[in-house]
Write a structure and sequence with these properties.
This protein has eight helices and six strands; from the N terminus they run E-H-E-H-H-E-E-H-H-E-H-E-H-H. With about 200 residues, the protein is α/β, with parallel strands linked by helices. Bound molecules: flavin mononucleotide.
Length: about 200
Amino acid sequence: MAKRIALCITGASGAAFAYRFLEEASKANGVETHLVISKSGGMVIKQELGISVQDVQGLADFSYDEHNFMAPIASGSFRLCGTLVSPCSMKTLSGIAHAYESNLIIRCASIALKEKWKLVLMPRETPLSTIHIKNMLEASRAGAIIMPPMPQFYFKPKDISSLIDMTVGKMLSIFDIESSLSREWGSDKAALKEFEPSDGIY
Ligand SMILES: Cc1cc2nc3c(=O)[nH]c(=O)nc-3n(C[C@H](O)[C@H](O)[C@H](O)COP(=O)(O)O)c2cc1C
């Protein structure tokens, strides 16, 4: 059976992470994507990427309206490998932390938690209020993986797209999707040699 993943895009900044994830997932073997984009998510896609919601939907295997509770992914009987909410607004994070299932995105995340499937949240806001932090803690305690977009500078990104791709590589590897974007520290022996104690840093 294909690896079914629900990708939910909300109205936080960072639509590029979801777009690149979808591009890579659509190329991967045996991955089936189920996409939900919130109304605000659609506005941010337009603002940040300059493309339409339809352009993003075109990359997914299935896509649903955010209020379509008749969608297969609205039920735990439709088995998924997991759900990714990327980017995740503070509003959606709050709904997930409190199981307030007011749309298909929060319903889908709630199902992942109750079924003990993988739920990855990519919250984006800065600075964070105590309420935001508490909501992340609540979601984490319930089983979610909290993965804010925080780039690894030790891989020496050359530009914004390589910064984005590094984070997307991490997202893909959390879902065990093979991709050229996933990188492991230690695989580049030359880079490691630079940090041998003899260089005087330590
Ligand atoms: C351009 C733009 C950027 C935004 N960035 C963020 C953000 O980074 N984090 C956030 O929590 N909300 C952000 N918002 C506000 C959300 O879109 C808004 O709270 C919305 O109600 C979220 O709804 P949703 O979770 O259903 O998508 C942004 C809105 C716009 C228009």
